[in-house]
Amino acid sequence: MRHIDLIVIHCSATQQGVDVDVKTIDKWHRNRGFAGVGYNYIIRLDGTIEMGRDINRAGAHAKGYNSNSIGICYVGGLDSKDKPKDTRTKQQKQALRNIVTTLKSIYGDLDVVGHRDLSADLNGDGVITPGEWMKSCPCYNVKDEIY
């Protein structure tokens, strides 16, 4: 079993209200040259949690962090004009809390971050600010949530 000490939260960068499943994301990732879906879990609009890449295999979701992390992606993240927005439904928020709690009970006290929080600290001040984000993903501040 691989060493896991981090959970990385992502969004699918799809418009609010447009539901996609793990098979669709798998196809997108294969078209980008990945060996299948890069996330370990996908959370659909209704809160259904779908299994992605096997938890015992390193993901393909956060360059430099895949070997020691679990990737969770909620469907959504963009408004109707393709601008970043926290589009999580009530069901997605609850499912996300549930899966993080379950994973922590299995793997211990894991750090939970958003993909954007893994961006480079370009000015070296020790804080990753919006101007330094590689992406807006997951379109909300993970550190504001209680996980």
Describe the structure.
The protein is α/β, with parallel strands linked by helices. The chain has one domain (6-144): Peptidoglycan recognition protein-like (Lysozyme-like). Helix content is 19%, strand content 18%. A five-stranded mixed sheet has the order 4-3-5-1-7, covered by helices on one side. Strands 2-6 form a two-stranded parallel ribbon. A hairpin with a 5-residue loop joins β3 and β4 (49-51). It is globular and about 40 Å long. It starts with 5 loop residues before the first strand and ends in a 33-residue tail after the last strand.
Gist?
The protein has 147 residues and is α/β, with parallel strands linked by helices. It is 19% helix and 18% strand.
Characteristics:
alpha/beta, 18% strand, two-stranded parallel sheet, five-stranded mixed β-sheet, globular, 2 helices, 147 residues, 7 strands, Lysozyme-like
Radius of gyration: 14 Å
CATH architecture: 3-Layer(aba) Sandwich
Overall 3D form = globular
Largest pleated sheet:
5 strands, mixed
CATH fold assignment: Lysozyme-like
Uncertain runs with pLDDT below 50, 5 residues or more? none
User: How many extended strands?
Assistant: 7
Q: In DSSP terms, counting alpha (H) and pi (I) runs of 4 or more, how many helices?
A: 2
Corresponding CATH superfamily: Peptidoglycan recognition protein-like
Percent of residues in helical segments? Answer: 10-25%
Mean pLDDT: 92
H/E topology pattern: EEHEEEEHE
Strand content: 15-25%
CATH hierarchy, class = Alpha Beta
How are the strands of the biggest sheet laid out side by side? 4-3-5-1-7
